[in-house]
Write a structure and sequence with these properties.
Helix 3 crosses helix 4. The protein starts with a strand and ends with a strand. Helices cover about 35% and strands about 30% of the residues. A hairpin with a 2-residue loop joins strand 15 and strand 16. With about 375 residues, it is an alpha/beta fold. The mean pLDDT is about 95. The protein has an eight-stranded mixed sheet. A seven-stranded parallel sheet has the order 3-2-1-4-5-6-17, sandwiched between helices. It has a two-stranded antiparallel sheet with strand order 8-9. The chain has two domains: about 160 residues, Rossmann fold (3-Layer(aba) Sandwich), CATH 3.40.50.720; about 210 residues, Dihydrodipicolinate Reductase, domain 2, CATH 3.30.360.
């Protein structure tokens, strides 16, 4: 079968969301991963599917799989550690590449490949999910209403109707957000901050008040990359978690279950985080469980010599028919939308980008609304 798209990491939560959204829009998808049993339902339900086992460490093999699929657009949903490998495989296979984001050092490497990708007539977009992703496009929209931009705060906040712990997204990413130092731009200087030393209680529409912490994310770097010439001096990213989730994550960290340091277990070397990831895969959402999330970007600057502030928000809730995904739809679906934009020729620019540098605002917001995601500007719905 000739495929329209290849999804790497298709057996994980986000890969399943991306694949299903593409399939429900009439496309064919080659789903690639390591745990086929997790996508048997999708493979059985949709005719235009296929599966290939992959190991992201083998760039040559991954590129061959992409090349044989005949797809020219790849959505990479593997852990961010493998984004550079995925991009290299796509370049070999002559396919456009999108991913969900990674650490700043890797983001820098990806954006530095702009000249090579232009030469190859290919497009790479990193950070195509919620934040990064939707937040970046909201900034692109709001930035047009400023003459200069001084400060940007960005983040997410979420809650659920049943106060029971479920994995909000990749548990490895969550642990890293709580423990890895966060890059913060303050008065044009980069600082590394310990997340749990910068907790605050803040209010967000549809969520209420909850605890937020500085969080390791690529947006401070990409925002500065695109808007430093507009006067940008301060950028901070905040992750907001409801108490029942926040406390459980802290307990996991305190017990050492989030550690990446190998330990000896019955003669085998294992990482606690890998064990934890496998255990949590089998935790199901409680019956009638629903989530809400607010993705927000707070921009401050000047227009016509006067101070100006715009608060952009995207409000997301559990979507009927997608209950098992919770609010994770706001990560997988935007990646699907952006991939379709390349496929349809809506996005034609070649090179390496973050979404704020390339994604057209109006059609993107329109597609979000089709999926029941509202975008607000200072409290007013604009899509």
């Amino acid at each position: 079968m000739i495929f329209d798209f290849v999804v790497l990491g298709a057996t994980g939560m986000q890969g399943r969301i991306v694949s299903r959204d593409l399939l429900e829009n009439g496309y064919s998808v080659l789903m690639c991963g390591r745990d086929k049993k997790r996508i048997q339902k999708i493979l059985s339900k949709y005719d235009k599917t296929g599966f290939q086992y992959i190991e992201m460490s083998n760039i040559k093999n991954v590129s061959k799989i992409i090349e044989n699929s005949k797809a020219n657009v790849v959505v990479n949903c593997v852990e961010g550690d493998w984004n550079l490998n995925a991009l290299k495989a796509c370049i070999i296979a002559k396919a456009h590449c999108l991913d969900l984001g990674s650490e700043i050092w890797m983001t820098k490497k990806q954006l530095s490949m702009n000249k090579l990708l232009r030469k190859k007539n290919l497009t790479s977009i990193t950070g195509c999910g919620s934040v990064p992703g939707i937040g970046n496009v909201m900034l692109r929209y709001a930035s047009e209403k400023f003459d200069s931009i001084d400060s940007i705060e960005v983040g997410f906040a979420w809650d659920s109707n049943i106060k029971k712990f479920v994995v909000p997204f990749s548990i490895q990413s969550v642990i890293e957000e709580f423990t890895d130092k966060a890059s913060v731009l303050k008065k044009n200087k980069w600082k590394k901050e310990i997340p749990l030393e910068h907790m605050r209680n803040n209010y967000h529409r549809a969520i209420g008040r909850e605890t937020e912490i500085f969080t390791r994310h690529p947006e401070p770097y990409t925002f500065y990359h695109y808007f430093k010439d507009r006067g940008l001096k301060n950028v901070r990213f905040y992750g907001g978690f409801p108490k029942h989730s926040f406390d459980k994550i802290l307990s996991i960290i305190e017990l050492g279950l989030g550690s990446k340091t190998e330990i000896n277990f019955k003669g085998r070397r294992i990482k606690p985080i890998d064990f934890l990831t496998e255990v949590l895969k089998d935790i199901k959402y409680p019956e009638r469980y629903k989530e809400w999330e607010n993705l927000w970007v707070d921009i401050r600057g000047r227009k016509n010599c006067r101070k100006k502030r715009i608060l952009m928000e995207c409000i997301v809730s559990t979507l009927k028919g997608w209950e098992e995904a919770g609010c994770n739809i706001d990560t997988g679906m935007p990646a699907s939308i952006m991939a379709q934009m390349i496929k349809k020729g809506i996005v034609t620019e070649r090179g390496s980008f973050a979404p704020e540098g390339i994604i057209p605002v109006e059609p993107f917001f329109k597609e979000l609304r089709k999926r029941k995601m509202k975008v607000l500007e200072n409290g007013k719905t604009i899509n």
